[in-house]
Amino acid sequence: MNIRSVRLVYFSPTGGTRRVLEQIAAGTGVERVTRLDLTLPGAPNDFGEAGEDELLLLGAPVYAGRVPEIAMARFAGLRSLGGPAVLVAVYGNRAIEDALQELSALARAAGCVPVAGASFVAEHSYSTGKGPIAAGRPDREDLERAREFGREIAGYLGGVESAREIPAPELPGNPELKGRPVHPALVPTTDPGLCIACGACEQLCPTGSITTREISETNEAGCILCAACVKGCAFGARALQGPFIKKIREWLGENAAGRREPEIFMHGPG
Ligand SMILES: Cc1cc2nc3c(=O)[nH]c(=O)nc-3n(C[C@H](O)[C@H](O)[C@H](O)COP(=O)(O)O)c2cc1C
Ligand code: SF4
Ligand code: SF4
């Protein structure tokens, strides 16, 4: 089949998912690439219908082994007329658990044909200078693997008449999704001595939970603890701290320190 265009559809508070998808798209060699960035509150909810010859790259970070609830809600408007979809779960070097199963179910419900899945590692949202977790990922090697994956997908699709001929990829995880954990009421703090009330964190917040007054203030009810405001503050004024986050960081330091590599799930041409 001839892929007329590639459409990136993603939720990516700290940018790891977006960077991986951009490289997969580049690897396909398809010139027409469009983007549906569903990260911010003003994201569109009516996407129109993707054609049969439009390749969807559907990407999300892994939160507690699943796709973040807010991302699932924003992806809900996705529709395709039977075109191919590639599912990409981006995680912080712990595990993806059921995230690809969840993306696959979503793609099917939207009318897409899932043709491949992949997991890529990106710096963990809770990584810090003192306690790095997958710091600097995706790195050069990861991004080269992403481009190669794009080339593989293009070759794969080029060898069939329609995406419907392609057998479903065998994805890791359990299609019977486990429940989402409830985290304690907690938000990032703002250091009044460092915050200059520039408003950058407010612009980056996927849930619209920040208001900039004398300093940035956070509404606890909406915060998903994504750390976009922490990583995006050029003045180091925002931080995620407290016993809950400390425990997660310690656990990750002990259990998710060894480098994990991207994994591809597709049958491959021939
Ligand atoms: C609330 C929350 C839960 C997370 N859960 C996991 C997890 O279960 N496994 C994992 O490896 N990484 C986990 N991460 C790390 C993110 O998957 C990782 O940082 C990812 O790169 C974020 O994607 P983004 O840069 O596109 O926002 C979690 C991050 C957050 C904020
Ligand atoms: S980005 Fe940093 S300095 Fe700017 S308002 Fe937010 S916390 Fe304050
Ligand atoms: S306030 Fe919460 S939801 Fe908003 S960017 Fe910061 S961590 Fe993410």
Detailed description of the structure:
There is one protein chain. This protein is α/β, with parallel strands linked by helices. The protein folds into two domains: 5-177 and 259-265, Rossmann fold (3-Layer(aba) Sandwich), CATH 3.40.50; 189-241, Alpha-Beta Plaits (2-Layer Sandwich), CATH 3.30.70. Helix content is 27%, strand content 20%. A six-stranded mixed β-sheet has the order 2-1-4-6-7-12, with helices on both faces. The mean pLDDT is 95. The structure holds flavin mononucleotide and iron/sulfur cluster (SF4) (2 copies). The site of one iron/sulfur cluster (SF4) has 17 residues, from α6.
CATH architecture classification name of the largest domain: 3-Layer(aba) Sandwich
Can you tell me the CATH superfamily of the largest domain? Answer: Flavodoxin domain
Shape: globular
Uncertain regions spanning at least 5 consecutive residues: none
What would CATH call the class of the largest domain?
Alpha Beta
Strand order in the largest sheet = 2-1-4-6-7-12
User: Could you describe the largest sheet, including whether it forms a barrel?
Assistant: 6 strands, mixed
Q: What is the count of helical runs?
A: 7
Offer a quick outline of the entry.
The chain has 270 residues and is an alpha/beta fold. It is built from seven helices and twelve strands.
Task: Detail the topology: elements first, then pairings.
Elements: E1 5-10, H1 16-28, E2 33-37, E3 49-50, E4 54-61, H2 69-75, E5 79-80, E6 84-91, H3 99-109, E7 113-121, H4 140-158, E8 189-190, H5 200-204, E9 210-212, E10 216-218, H6 228-232, E11 238-239, H7 243-255, E12 263-265
Parallel strand pairs: 1-2, 1-4, 3-5, 4-6, 6-7
Antiparallel strand pairs: 7-12, 8-11, 9-10
Residues 12-17, 61-65, 90-95, 122, 124-125, 225-227 line the site of flavin mononucleotide.
